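Posted in: Structural Biology > Protein-Ligand Complexes

Title: Requesting predicted complex, glutathione in pocket

I'd be grateful if someone could produce the 3D structure tokens for the following input. Sequence and ligand are given below.
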Amino acid sequence: MTPVITAFAQSPDRGAGQARDMRVRWALEEAGQPYDVRLVSFGEMKEPAHRALHPFGQIPTYEEGDLALFESGAIVLHIAQRHAGLLPDEANARARAITWMFAAVSTVEPPILESETATLLEGDETWHEQRLPLVEGRIRDRLGQLSNCLGDADWLDGEFSAGDLVMVGVLRRLKGSGILEEYPNLSAYVARGEARPAFKRAFEAQLAVFTGKRPAG
Ligand SMILES: N[C@@H](CCC(=O)N[C@@H](CS)C(=O)NCC(=O)O)C(=O)O
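-- Reply #1 --
Done. Output follows.
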């Protein structure tokens, strides 16, 4: 059964691939699984029909037969567990890859989101200029630790895994901030993720929603 995911009908990022459906599309592409997309407006996301799928009225969601999921990390984990290519077979390596998925969404992503919120919603506050360096400092703390951990390896733990997919997705949120470039090995890590054919197919597919151009291939 072909799964159906939801994505933004209008692009807040002009198709830069920051919306979290990108992680799900990428995982499905890595797994070689076809999928359909249902586009939702901001209004529709808050309607009961969508809230029945996503209690917080957000994208992405994932429907496959009787199963409905939300939370991009959980969706990627589901795809990775159902299909080959995103998690190692060996039990301990598999557990470590899943650990990196959680690290991405629960340890690295929060300070990045905090900085986005500070810039978007608190930019006019008198204390914004004072607070921003503190928030960005918390991002740098995490990136420094992650950078040390990655070292000169290609991926976080051996072969590319769902842990890298989610981590690269999270780090891509820093594009345009200049912060990622302070950590050359992390910049190269993100570039390696973006160079994967599955990433490119997913990126083109989400971009096509906003340009109206059919993805190549
Ligand atoms: N933790 C959730 C976050 C979902 C989320 O923030 N989705 C954004 C798009 S990337 C959204 O729907 N924003 C619109 C809104 O919250 O109204 C996940 O990883 O799926």
